[in-house]
Specification:
The protein has 4 domains: 113 residues, Tetrapyrrole methylase, N-terminal domain (Cobalt-precorrin-4 Transmethylase, domain 1, 3-Layer(aba) Sandwich); 123 residues, Tetrapyrrole methylase, C-terminal domain (Methyltransferase, Cobalt-precorrin-4 Transmethylase, Domain 2); 114 residues, Rossmann fold, CATH 3.40.50.10090; 110 residues, Rossmann fold (3-Layer(aba) Sandwich). It is α/β, with parallel strands linked by helices and 488 residues long. A hairpin with a 7-residue loop joins strand 8 and strand 9. The strands form 4 sheets. Strands 3-2-4-1-5 form a 5-stranded parallel sheet, sandwiched between helices. The chain contains 17 helices and 20 strands.
């Protein structure tokens, strides 16, 4: 029985360590905080028990005693447990206390350090916490203590005299008292200060000032936790070295509702454009037990009606040569790209990824026997149209789409986003069931007309519909909408 105290880093999923990802993938139980990166749990086993024990400053709290009880319960049960914390478990993360508790109970403990926010958030804001000629030392301090209380572990006069950079965690609500104590201790009221909110997340922002005015500036800007405060000459480098959170989608938050196995590429593209991405996979693709017909070569046409279908078909075929014989039709560019990734060039690809367009594209092709590889439940437009032309049509169900429960943090983050994107009709239905309909202020983005029809069936009007019915087309449509709204 082992409990791993694992640091998930400060927010950017790309900063998670290989060891952290390895342990998440094999854990029986994961107790996670709310400040872990989006998608941090994507690699967890489907049967793993995921427990939200998060704490957010100023928000709802899970008592530490309750977390301790869960660690002991699952550790004693012989499970492999990951206690996943934002940042580093031993830097203001109570990891040391939890380790002592577990060791006293005879439970094995390992520790996986993580990139701590006190270094990462300033770095993403262009602030080196040490700099030759400016700061030869750095001190990490909890800002959660009240500098005015009678008993404190922080020696404020000594801290004010510290010859280097001060980095405060969790101190955004006490900035006025922190600044006051530092000035009283001898720091210059004109010393540069920077407050970095949600450091390394795509919606990171930085408020700059001095010890004299940073508290007022932070209030005016509406700065909230989580935030890191940097005090010292290096804080003044922010304007010169700021490099993060630039791009056409900077300042915009976007919900991605695709299946978990598909979300990464779209999320990465949006993050690369500066967006804060909320991963809210409302659906899961569940493969069905299926087999290719032994007489596939006797079919005139093989129709593939989705990228998921293409990928599942290729899994069954194992080798592209197994699909030799019939002409191959892809319902649209996205499905065609999925086939091309395996070296298969489809013979028919309509520009619009809807069954009606595929029917039109097949109008001049003589067909006697057709195999349609698709989802278990799908529209009947294509098979009915081909049967009406006299073709013998057979259906090969390859997968089903099922609901994916959304954790509370994902639901909360999704409800606050600027845009909600949908790439399939099933994602519309299951997302609304899991998280409710998007709010009136949120912009709804659809990948194409079938998805848009599903939105309208649920009483929603899509604000944006992609011209090209692919993830790239969806991103292009989103960019155009953001640009148009900025000009208004």
């Amino acid at each position: 029985m082992t409990v791993h105290l694992v640091g998930a880093g400060p927010g950017d999923a790309g900063l998670m360590t290989a060891r952290a990802l390895e342990l998440i993938a094999r854990a029986d139980v994961i107790l996670y905080d709310r400040l872990i990166p989006d998608g941090a749990l994507d690699g967890a086993r489907a049967d793993a028990l995921l427990l939200d024990v998060g704490k957010v400053g100023g928000g709802t709290q899970v008592p530490q005693e309750a977390t301790n009880a869960l660690l002991l319960e699952h550790g004693r049960a012989g499970h492999e447990v990951v206690r996943l914390k934002g940042g580093d478990p031993f830097v203001f993360g109570r990891g040391g206390e939890e380790a002592q508790l577990l060791v006293a109970a005879g439970i094995d403990v390992t520790v996986v350090p993580g990139v701590t926010a006190g270094v990462a958030a300033p770095a993403y804001a262009g602030i080196p916490v040490t700099q030759r000629g400016m700061a030869a030392a750095v001190a990490f301090v909890t800002g959660h203590e009240d500098p005015g209380k009678e008993e404190t572990q922080v020696d404020w006069p000594a801290l004010a005299a510290f010859p280097g950079t001060l980095v405060f965690y969790m101190g955004v609500r006490k900035l006025d008292r922190i600044a006051e104590q530092l000035v009283l201790g001898g720091r210059s009221a004109s010393e540069p200060v920077a407050v970095v909110q949600r450091g390394t997340f795509a919606d990171q922002r930085t408020v700059s000032g001095t010890l004299a005015d940073i508290a007022d500036r932070a209030v005016e800007a509406g700065v909230r936790a989580p935030a890191i405060t940097v005090v010292g000459a290096v804080a003044g480098l922010h304007q010169e070295l700021a490099w993060f959170a630039r791009g056409p989608l900077a300042g915009r938050s976007v919900v991605v509702t695709r299946a978990r196995a598909q979300v990464s590429a779209l999320a990465a593209r949006l993050r690369g454009l500066g967006a804060h991405v909320v991963e809210a996979p409302a659906i899961r693709i569940e493969p069905l037990d299926a087999a290719l017909p032994s007489d596939l070569a006797s079919y005139d046409l093989l129709c593939v009606t989705s990228p998921n279908g293409a990928r599942r078909l290729l899994e069954l075929a194992r080798d592209a040569r197994a699909l030799a014989g019939p002409a191959i039709a892809a319902i649209g560019p996205g499905t065609a790209d999925a086939l091309r990734a395996a070296g298969i060039e489809p013979d028919v690809v309509p520009q619009r990824a809807v069954a009606e367009s595929l029917v039109e594209a097949l109008a001049d092709l003589p067909l006697k026997r057709v195999l349609i590889a698709r989802a278990e439940q799908a529209r009947e437009v294509l098979p009915e149209a081909l049967r009406a032309r006299g073709a013998a049509v057979e259906i090969l169900p390859l997968y089903r789409t099922v609901a994916e429960p959304l954790a509370a943090p994902a639901r909360d983050a999704a409800s606050a986003a600027d845009y909600v994107t949908f790439t399939s009709a099933s994602a519309v239905r299951f997302y609304i069931e899991a998280a409710g309909a998007p709010a009136a202020r949120q912009r709804v983005v659809s990948i194409g007309p079938i998805t848009s029809d599903a939105l309208r069936a649920h009483g929603l009007v899509p604000h944006v519909e992609a011209i090209q019915h692919t993830p790239d087309g969806l991103v292009a449509a989103l960019l155009a909408d953001v640009s148009a709204r900025r000009r208004c």
